[in-house]
Amino acid sequence: MIRPILLSALLAMATPVVADTENAAPRPVISEIVRADSAIMRSFDGVIEPRDQIDLAFRTGGRLARISVETGDRVSQGSVLASLDQITLQQDLDAASAAVVSARAAADLAAAQLERGTALIDRGVYSQAQLEQLQTSSDAARAQLNNAIATEVQAREAAHYGNLTAPVDGVILTTNAEVGSYIAAGTSVLSITGGSEIEAVIDVPEPLFETLTTTSQFEITHQVPGVDPIRATLRSVDPVTEGKLDTRRMRLTLIDPPADYRIGALVLARPLAQQTPTITLPQSALTTLDGQLGVWRITPDRTAEFAPVTVSTEIGDRITITAGIDINDEIITRGASSVSIGQHIGDRIQ
C-alpha cells in the first residue's frame, strides 16, 4: 500500500496551481478618461497691438526742445509732435548766411582782379604767371562761395526740419527721447500706429505651437469684465523662438473688434476646437507589448486590453495621440508596465 500512496503524492506535487482569476481582487490602477481638451482649451495671455508701426525721427540733428504728445494720444496727420531747439537752428542759419555774404564778396573781388589782370597783360604790365595766380585765386574764391551756399541750404533745411510732424492719423505708441538731450539725425524719437488695424499678440510654448495650424481660429476675451469676446484668425508667426522661454510669437487678426479692444489692452486668447480634436495623455500611460507602442484601455466589463497608438508632439509631461484611441476611452495612466491582457481592473474612483 505504500507504493500507490507515494505515487499519488508525487502526481499531486507535479500539477501546476491555476490562479483563480475570477475570484482574484481587481487590480487598483490610476486611469484617465480621454478628453479633447489638452492644447485646445488652453488660454494664452496677450496684448492688443497695432498691425503697423511707424518710427519717427528728425532729418537733422539738434537738441530736443519739446515733445508735445504722450503715449496713447490720438494725433492727426500734420500735427507737430516734437521740436528741436529753434534758437540753435536759427543761429546756425544766420552764421551760414553770413558766411555766404563773406564768400560772395571774396569771390567778386577775385573775379574783378582777374578781369583787370587780363586787360593789363596785353600792355605788358602783368606776366603770364601773375595772370595764372589771379585765375587760381578767383577759382578758389568761387569754390568757397559754392561751399558756403551749400552750408546755408543745409542750415535752412535743418531749420525747416526742426519740427517732427505726424505722417498719418494714428495713436502715439512710444516716446524714445528726453527733452534736453541731443538727437542725431535718424534717431527714433516717437513711434505711431501706421493705420487703424489692430491685432492680438500672444506667446505660445513651442510644443503647443506645433499642435496649431494656419487655419486655427481663436476666441479673444478682454480681461475687463463685461466686454464681449470676439473671434480672431492667425495672421503670422515670428520665425524665431523667443529667447530662453522657448515660445513662438503669434499675431492674430481681430474680427470686427469693438472700441473696448484698444491698443495696450490685455486679453486672453483661446484656440477654438477644430473638427479633428486634439487628444493627449500623460507619458506614463505609454508602454510596449511585443515591441509595439500603445496604452492599456479599460473595457466596459473592467478588463484591460492593449491599444496600439500613434504619437506626435510632446506637451510638457503629456504627449499628443493621433490614432489608436477615441474620446471617452478610459486609459490606465499609472502602472501600465505591470498590466496584462484581460486583467480585471477595479472600478474607477471619481
Description:
This protein is of the alpha+beta class. The chain folds into 4 domains: 20-36 and 278-338, conserved putative lor/sdh protein from methanococcus maripaludis s2 fold (Beta Barrel); 44-51 and 197-271, Beta Barrel (Elongation Factor Tu (Ef-tu), domain 3); 54-85 and 162-193, RNA polymerase II/Efflux pump adaptor protein, barrel-sandwich hybrid domain (OB fold (Dihydrolipoamide Acetyltransferase, E2P), Beta Barrel); 86-160, Orthogonal Bundle (Helix Hairpins), CATH 1.10.287. The protein has 4 helices and 22 strands. The strands form 5 sheets. It has a 6-stranded antiparallel barrel. Strands 1, 17, 18, 19 and 22 form a 5-stranded antiparallel beta sheet that branches. The longest helix is centred in the N-terminal third of the chain and has 36 residues, at 86-121. The protein is elongated.
How is the secondary structure organized here?
Layout: H1 2-14, E1 30-33, E2 44-50, E3 53-57, E4 62-67, E5 74-75, E6 80-84, H2 86-121, H3 128-160, E7 163-165, E8 170-175, E9 182-183, E10 188-193, E11 198-205, H4 206-209, E12 217-222, E13 230-237, E14 247-254, E15 266-271, E16 279-282, E17 287-289, E18 292-298, E19 304-308, E20 310-315, E21 318-323, E22 330-334
Antiparallel strand pairs: 1-22, 2-11, 2-15, 3-10, 4-6, 4-9, 5-8, 6-7, 8-10, 11-14, 12-13, 12-15, 13-14, 16-21, 17-18, 18-19, 18-22, 20-21
Helix pairs in contact: 2-3
